[in-house]
Specification:
- By secondary structure, the chain is of the alpha/beta class.
- The N and C termini lie far apart (61 Å).
- Among the domains are: 2-204, Rossmann fold, CATH 3.40.50; 406-471, Luciferase, domain 3, CATH 2.30.38.10; 475-642, ANL, C-terminal domain (GMP Synthetase, Chain A, domain 3, 2-Layer Sandwich).
- Helix content is 39%, strand content 20%.
């Protein structure tokens, strides 16, 4: 790591780091991308050569320092290289979520005064094209995939191949122009603008420097001994800080290999193909894999099922201890090794986790049960606190001290404190430069001494571990006095394999209620085993047997809450099951699976009101589209049930 640290002193921008790797590790694999079932490798020398031509092509199109370029698409080698190509000129990349509609992109493109866009395919080009009349600053659009683009008017459209040819022509006239452009960059320069997902309000453009990203990347890598030998799978949204932190910043700082899947649909098969030793995912991915694993076990033979439960009982007791290097008796250690051979190893192999050195989960809370499952079977899963404003680095669990309900202590170089409102406040080597064109919001979040107000409500224990309880804005009071943090209740509900998402309500009310989104696969298997058929998700969600199942899950949670005096008043008294799954496209979730509570509360206002009344059902539009006509066929009847709980005051069944 010392060599890496030394190189950062002079290679203080990402294009400089790219040239550094091309010089010292020219034949090492920088990228692999799967195409038509075959993994194709790009070395560091080849990557640098491609970036040079792309950068010179952009320069020829008139791109200048501080101009902004939107980057839109899935994870491909070309799009990752485009970040460096833009930065080499001193221009600023602005990644956007590929699932965003043109309308959602519009405000960001206008605010950033986007000069051009680099798009993966026709779908993204069409979105940008549709906005050129209202976003007057757009002068060019570059696209990667040729499919579907032949009939377009190419006056302001360029393929990456054409762009590179323009760059090649420019280089023939001035061979040293690229090196000259790169040399002008400084570590303190603005490297990227990443827009927040807008969980609690309008997205804000977070300005991050090369220095902040590089320092954060290096400190986190040092803590977990991440080296240039690692293999990662890059599949998270390019516009999320978690992906940029690992797949770009750490990739350039450390020099490991980034593998891009063929498409989002091949993610899980590509994960098995690569068998990464360094992996990051939001909780939704880890939760889905656990649900799939448990469903396979339930459908396996009686012997496999029995062995699984026997060895998982053992893993409950010693798995995490062995992973953390704690003392465990020889008999238990031998039995666990046998369990690893028969059960844990095959599970990890099936998930693609056989070679994991470290895996991170971040971007949203993860349930205790899912988190502990991985650690019990020997996967070194840890929580990381990924705020865009800190360049993705603030709190990180160490290998020898991992707590289920903690995001870890402050990382090296990070300071943290809790104010009198319970808000987590910190300052980090990766501190952002401010919000783009939003000085008022910057002043509210970043003070003159460098302290960042996270917006999160939390605690710090005696060992310095930070626990994030909820967004401060989402906390409230139950029955006028009891502190209510809905996220805490929701996480506990999601410990059930049958519950995919949950929305706890009750702030300003007399009791807690819950809207449940069931897991289609786990719940569907449950009904099929009982010999019950169903025609779709809506019918599945409203089946009496499913309500009985969820009611029992809630009863178990209520019994747990009743054991603690401070939590007894937070027992769930009423619940319903939503007829649809929450979806980022509907604005209900961020792209990493985090609940957009404000948006959901507005969309489900009538349902929430019914939950906190004496109604036993409510009719809602089947698509939850407020603009949909209210015909009988477009409505669905949602049942509302009382939950079983301690001291029910007449509400429990």
């Amino acid at each position: 790591m010392n060599d890496v640290a030394n190189s950062l002193n002079k290679n203080d921008t990402f294009p400089k780091l790219l040239l550094h790797h091309a010089k010292v590790n020219p034949t090492s694999a920088a990228y692999r991308q799967k195409h038509l079932g075959i993994w194709q490798t790009l070395t560091w020398a080849e990557a640098a050569a491609r970036v040079e031509l792309m950068a010179l092509g952009l320069h020829s199109l008139g791109l200048k320092p501080n101009d902004k370029v939107a980057i839109v698409g899935q994870n491909t080698t070309s799009l990752y290289l485009s970040f460096s190509a833009v930065q080499a000129i001193g221009a600023i990349p602005v990644p956007l979520y590929p699932d965003s509609s043109a309308t959602e992109m519009s405000d960001i493109l206008k605010e950033a005064e986007i000069k051009g866009a680099i798009c993966q395919d026709q779908e993204q080009v069409d979105k940008i094209e549709s906005l050129t009349s209202e976003v007057k600053s757009i002068e060019f659009i570059v696209y990667e995939e040729l499919r579907g683009m032949r009939q377009y008017d190419h006056k302001h459209l360029q393929s990456i191949e054409t762009l590179s040819q323009i760059g090649k022509d420019f280089k023939s006239k001035d061979p040293k122009s690229f090196a000259s452009l790169v040399d002008q960059g400084k570590g303190s320069d603005l490297a990227i603008i990443i827009y927040t997902p807008g969980t609690t309000g309008t997205p804000k453009g977070v300005m991050l420097s090369h220095d902040g990203l590089q320092k954060s990347a290096r400190l986190a890598a040092d803590q977990d001994n991440i080296s240039s030998k690692e293999n990662i799978l890059a599949y998270l949204p390019l516009a999320w800080i978690g992906d940029h932190f690992v797949s770009y910043a750490q990739h350039y700082v450390i020099g490991f290999t980034v593998n891009c899947p063929e498409s989002p649909d091949t993610l899980f098969s590509d994960l098995k193909d690569i068998g990464p030793n360094y992996f990051m995912a939001p909780p939704r991915i880890f939760e889905r894999l656990v649900t799939q694993t448990k469903n396979r076990i339930e459908n396996a033979s009686g012997i496999i099922n029995s062995l699984y439960h026997y060895f998982m009982t053992l893993a409950d007791r010693v798995g995490a201890k062995i992973l953390e290097g704690q003392s465990v008796g020889l008999t238990d250690r031998f039995s666990y090794a046998l369990g690893n051979l028969i059960i844990f190893g095959p599970i990890k192999n099936n998930l693609g986790f056989n070679h994991i050195k470290v895996a991170y989960t971040g971007g949203a809370p993860i349930s205790d049960e899912v988190f502990s499952f991985y650690r019990k079977i020997g996967v070194n899963l840890k929580q990381i606190y990924t705020q865009t404003e800190s360049s993705g680095y603030a709190f990180l669990q160490s290998n020898d001290s991992v707590l289920e309900n903690s995001v870890g202590p402050a990382g090296p170089g990070v300071e943290v404190k809790i104010d009198n409102k319970g808000e987590i406040i910190y300052r980090s080597p990766g501190n952002f430069l401010g919000y783009y064109k939003n000085e008022n919001a910057t002043k509210k979040t970043l003070d003159k001494d460098g302290w960042i107000r996270s917006g999160d409500f939390g605690t710090i224990n005696g060992a310095g571990h930070v626990r994030v309880i909820d967004r401060l804005i989402d906390t409230g009071k139950i029955a006028s006095s009891l502190q209510f943090a809905p996220q805490n209740i929701e996480n506990k509900l999601k410990d059930s394999p049958f519950i995919q998402d949950a929305i706890a309500t009750g702030s300003g009310k007399d009791f807690v209620a819950a809207i449940i989104v069931v897991d289609a696969e786990a719940t569907g298997n449950y009904l099929e085993k009982a010999g019950i058929g169903f025609s779709g998700y809506t019918e599945l969600s409203q089946h009496e047997m499913v309500f009985d199942l969820i009611q029992n899950n809630i009863k178990t949670l209520n019994e747990e809450l009743a054991k603690t005096q401070d939590l007894a008043g937070l027992q769930i008294k009423r619940f319903t099951i939503l007829h649809k799954q929450l979806d980022p496209i509907d604005g209900e979730l961020t792209q990493t699976g985090k609940l957009r509570r404000n948006q959901v509360s507005k969309r489900l206002k009538k349902l929430i009101e019914a939950l906190h009344s004496n109604k036993n059902s409510i009719e809602l539009p089947s698509t939850q589209d407020p603009g949909q006509s209210r015909t009988k066929s477009s409505m669905v009847l949602l049942k509302i049930r009382n939950a079983r709980h301690t001291e029910d005051n007449g509400l429990g069944n």
